[in-house]
Amino acid sequence: MEQQLYELPEGWCLATLPKVVDENGLFTDGDWVESKDQDPSGDVRLIQLADIGVGEYRDRSSRFLTYDKAKELNCSFLRTNDILFARMPDPIGRACLFPGDEKQSVTVVDVAIIRPASKLVNANWLVYQINSPQFHASVVALQKGATRKRISRKNLATIQFPLPPLNEQKRIVAKLDALFTRIDAAITHLQETLELSKALFASALDEVFTKAANEFEVKPISKIFTITSGDGLTQKNMVKDGPYDVYGGNGISGRHNEYNRSGLNVVIGRVGAWCGNVRLVDGDIWVTDNAFFVKSYLAEVFEPYLVAALQHLNLRDTANQAAQPVISYKGIKELPIPLPSMKEQGRIVTHLDDLAEHTRTLEVETQERLDQLSTLKSSLLDSAFRGKL
Q1: At the top level of CATH, which class does the domain 13-163 belong to?
Q2: Which of 32, 53, 264, 376 has the most CB atoms in a 10 Å sphere around its CB?
Q3: Domain boundaries, the chain
């Protein structure tokens, strides 16, 4: 497959993965190991797609089989510094070095194993190359599958890439390692900033309602409002291009051509991973039976204040522990909410809105800087494999 759109530097050539593997190397798929072949007490580890990150070994899985079974299946045993290539998302085509394991290890069939010739290729350089924007674009162009996209090893073997001399590979790796270490440190700092901003808002929310509970009357939910579930509406029966949002257990779940609620509504997710989420929605909507909405008010309350109070209560904590989490009115009705005057409720909402806006601004600015650093990494890889680093 032809990718070269620029002149190669002197001493460089085009290569493919099969061409950088000698008779002592390996370029093969992992092994077809079914559930029936596995054994939790086995002495051979089965490396999974989840263990493979972009340039990093994640070490997330815990699957095993016995040595005898691995030999029976004629598995390819991994070596330290083998390159593991994920033939499936997400993202497809990511690669990392295998650092070794205390147990002998094999890997699954949707992972390609690349063991390049050490006299031709620096393994760290090849991992950088495979994770580069150019190589990834070629992988994406060759992926197949109606539902589960993957690239075959046969197609992977056709991808050409620029190969510099070994000494130049080592120089590029040293330069990229140094630059990426600094960039990754900056990314870690920014990610910590994002988490801190969220934690600070949560702390401010807690402080506001703790103070309100100490200064004002407190009532249980059952004395403030009543709730009811929406109406059943399956994904199959929704109208994709309908004008109205459909709210389910985890927020907006689709569109429809009819609505069952109008005006200002407090909607609470009832079922699902995000059950207990609270939203204030203004307009015509459809609320399904996977969500509650406030049916009537029994006390004077400002809707935005109520939403903030319910978010502070973290209703998700009251969900049952079944496979499909569900919250119930019975489980939340005795939860306490402080009820100051409407004027004070409005003041609290304004204060929280100002804090939320400040937090959103910080998060947007931080995400922009994270995106810039990600772009910088891609640009450095692009330059490195054009001989311009």
Answers
A1: alpha beta
A2: 53
A3: 13-163, 165-195+346-389, 217-339
